Each structure stands twice: as structure tokens, then as C-alpha cells.
Amino acid sequence: MTQFRAAKKLDALDRRCDALESERRQIELQAFGAEVTAGERRERYLQLGDPTLRRRLIGLTRDLHTARHEQQAVAIAYWSLVTADTRRKLDDLKNDAPTARWRRDIWWDALTILWIIGGAGWLAWQIPGAIGGTLVTAALTPWLVRGRHRRRDESIRKGEGLLRSGELELQQAQAEAARLPAEPPFSAAEGR
Description:
About 85% of the residues lie in helices and about 0% in strands. It is mainly alpha-helical.
């Protein structure tokens, strides 16, 4: 699952849980005159005289339980993808090898500047202009390298912050999933 698909699925599950919760709240207000707390929900639902409302409330509670479990599983998958992707990008940025992507990009930039300035110099003054363009590019390259290093260091700092944030979100999603009861509060037979 891609990060985008996980985010879309998580958003859809959030909306579904909100809709189920809202519908349950409305039926509780209709049946009991007030919202029912989680601790007394089972007892109050089973004491409800109207079997249609009781079945609907129990069914909504079971559906909400299933949706919350699915929501937490997708949240864990999403934040795992985010942290893994961020960690991979940080590793790429921290790579100091001469063949690292960020180092190659510096030289592509320098070659682009050489092509533009050297070409303009050639068009204006032929060989002396091309040599001048090459010297100007040689003078600009250390400045370009320092700028890339600065941008890389800033990106690493931001990436480490994003990684910490993603890991925190992942831990919260895992803790939330651990807090959810494994079994729904009502059995399938009680919902009939």
C-alpha cells in the first residue's frame, strides 16, 4: 500500500467512524433522552424495550468496533510507511559518498551554469567569451556547493524532526490499537 492510498483509506475510515458515532448518538438521544457512557452502554442497550432500536444500537456498536479496529490497522500502516520513507530519504541525504545524489546534483547545476554562461560568452566573444564563461562558472561553483551543503543540512534537520513526529504518531496509533477491546461489546446473537 502506498502512502497516498493509506492516507485516503484512513480518511475514509475516519469519516465512516464519525458517521457511525453520530448515528449511534442520535439513536441514543431518541431512545434514552441523553448520550450513554461507554461503561453503561451494554446494560442500557439490553434493557431497551424497543427491539428494533436495540438491534440497531447493538449493530451500530459492533460496526463501530470493527471500523475502529480497521482504522487503527490502517493508521499503523500509514505511519509505518511515513517513517520508513522519511528514514530512507534521511539516509540518502546523510550519504557522503562521492556518488550520492545530492553531490551529483551540484555538478549537474555547475554544468548547466557553464553551458549557459559559456554559451553566452561564445555567442558574444567566441573563444575569449567561452573561456570567460568557464572562469565565471569556476568562481560560482564553490558558492553553489556551500549553498547545497547548507540546504542539505537544513533538510536533514527538518527530516529528523519529521521522523520524530512520525515515530510519535506511530507509537500513538499502536497504543490506541492496544487500548481497543479485542472483542466487540455485544455478540452477534445479541444483535438479532
